[in-house]
Give the backbone structure.
Amino acid sequence: MPRAITASGPRKGHGPARPLAAAGAVAAFALLWAVVEAIAASADVGIEQVVWSRYGTHLLALVLIFGRRDGWGLVRTARPFVHGWRSLLMLGMPMSYVAGAIFVGASETWALFWIAPLVVLGGQPRTSGLARWAATICACLGTALILAPGFGVARWGVLFAVVMVACFVGYLWMTDDLSDDTTRTNLFHSALWVFIALTFRMPFVWRWPSAEGWGVLVAVGLLGLLALYALDVAIRFGGPVAFAPTLCLQPVFSLILEDGVGDLGKRAVLGTALIVLATLWVLVRDQDTPRRPASGFAAARPETAG
């Protein structure tokens, strides 16, 4: 279970909450996530190879940019096993999506996944507050309107969507718990263990990409790295509870990338409005909440965001 989080006041290992910065960072994460998904859809290799290439590119970029500067500091952590489990959640999530898409349907699995912000709040009900619950419920209803799943009878395959939720929420909580490590170290370990696990599968599933396919894989890796960086920053500035409704912007960005603003139907417009209004409502409330003096996030611990 993650440590107690509030929308205001300093948090251990984080410094004072900054709701506006957290909302901006998680909105950037949602946009980058949508872009990564759109680009990955054009890959000419299987999903295991896409995920392996993504995290391989992620690791290579970190080593090239920070390896000489940080040395073993890029890797060193007092909690390697926690990092390992957290990293493998990033493997469990896409694999569960694929299984859910096969047994239930892609749109149904994706729609069910968006109960995740409610699960984030459920992990810390005493610090979430009724207003945040109401806003997050509205945002989740907005995702249902956008995705418009066509559920028939309940099928056991929906459990794969539940596993997706567990993987994603677990990643958020564990990232929050690991915030005493630097962002660079967290990002390195986020990719390392997925990459190692899938390396053993590559001889059995490898297909040589086209020249364009290589570009797709590199773009997915670099943009995916930026997305996880934005998420880590958002957690340090506010914590998962603080930005739960804002996560629901991801389906909005995905819809716009796919269909454009001009082709949105009435349901999609209503869903988008619910998500945006819920996000703004929580943000305004957090900005109006009195906060204790800064505990030195920017001054005493600048390296944690680096």
Remarks:
- The chain has two domains: 37-104+182-238, 105-154+244-287.
